[in-house]
Amino acid sequence: MDHAPDTGKVRDVRCTNCNSALGKLRDDPDAMRRAIAYLEGNVWKPILEAPGVYQLPS
Fold first, then answer.
1. Are 35 and 25 spatial neighbours (Cβ–Cβ below 8 Å)?
2. What is the pLDDT of residues 42-58, one digit of tens each?
């Protein structure tokens, strides 16, 4: 069972793997998007701002 971490209320019934993945990502949509980008091969790379100065993606 999937439950809301703040209220403990049951949200849905999920398989063990899916429920664990959601828990490990702490129900964070941005973390899920980063995981999807990684799986799709869209690895986040530093952006060159000036010679020797890079901006890291957040």
1. yes
2. 666 778 899 989 887 76
For residues 41 and 50, is the Cβ–Cβ distance under 8 A? no
**How far apart (Å, rounded) are the C-alpha atoms in residues 3 and 24?**
13
If DSSP codes are grouped into helix, strand and coil, which group holds residue 53?
strand
* Helix, strand, coil percent values for the chain (each to nearest 5): 35, 20, 45
Chain segment 5-50, per-residue pLDDT in tens: 889 899 889 899 999 998 899 989 999 988 888 888 766 677 889 9
What is the distance between the alpha carbons of residues 2 and 23, in angstroms, rounded to a whole number?
9
pTM over 0.85: no
